[in-house]
Amino acid sequence: MTVSRVGVFGGSFDPIHFGHLLAADDVAEALDLDRMLLVPAAVPPHKPMADMAPAADRFAMVALAVAGHPRLAACDLELRRPGPSYTVDTLRALEGEGDLHLLMGSETFLDLLTWREPREVARRARLVVVPRAGGAFDPDAPAAQKVLAALDLPAFAAPRDAGRGPVLVHALSLPISASELRRRCRAGRSLHFRLPAPVAAYIHEHGLYRRGAA
């Protein structure tokens, strides 16, 4: 029986935008994934919650953004679990769903040793590293090699290569940041061409990111 190839793309998605979606779509295609799960963090361990939109709203925006896509899907696993949204717990919950591929930016990869149980994360999912648009990432540099050694991983591999080595995918991306979108919301500026229209409508209808909003 063929094992499903499943991508896991976690984040705060506050809000989700075309940069997230293009990267997810490009990686799903490059790795020939059957599904790419976008998993909004209920309580991101490395981010302050004070100015963040409620998790239910962030999940709703992700669901609107991927509606109708043949591979991308919103996943509410972390909303259904109390406490900090640790990736290792999400991967444990997805055990049996298929061959897991964990999508992350190159800066996140270099910071991976600060995560909870990073070796277990690397054991449960193949790491898929996407360099930031316009940024430089050298998989042979000492910083990257330190992470590989600490996680007992072999060298980076090509997208379709078999094995345990992390995969480097130069996915299409856009220089859009969620923090800039939140600032534009507070200033009453346009969100057009930066995120899907249904997401922009949701932000407007629910009063998200306005100055003084809950």
The structure class reads: alpha/beta
Mean pLDDT: 92
Measured distance between first and last alpha carbons:
49 Å
- The side-by-side strand order for the widest beta sheet comes to 3-2-1-4-5-6
Key traits:
214 residues, alpha/beta, Rossmann fold, six-stranded parallel beta sheet, globular
Outline of the structure:
The chain has about 210 residues and is of the alpha/beta class. It contains 8 helices and 6 strands, in the order E-H-E-H-E-H-E-H-H-E-H-E-H-H. The chain has a single domain, classed as Rossmann fold, CATH 3.40.50.620.
Explain this structure to me?
- The protein is of the alpha/beta class.
- Helices cover 33% and strands 14% of the residues.
- It has a single domain, classed as Rossmann fold (3-Layer(aba) Sandwich), CATH 3.40.50.620.
- It has eight helices and six strands, in the order βαβαβαβααβαβαα.
- The chain has a six-stranded parallel β-sheet.
- Helix 2 (55-66) packs antiparallel against helix 8 and helix 3 (87-93) runs parallel beside helix 5.
- It is globular and about 50 Å long.
- The N and C termini lie far apart (49 Å).
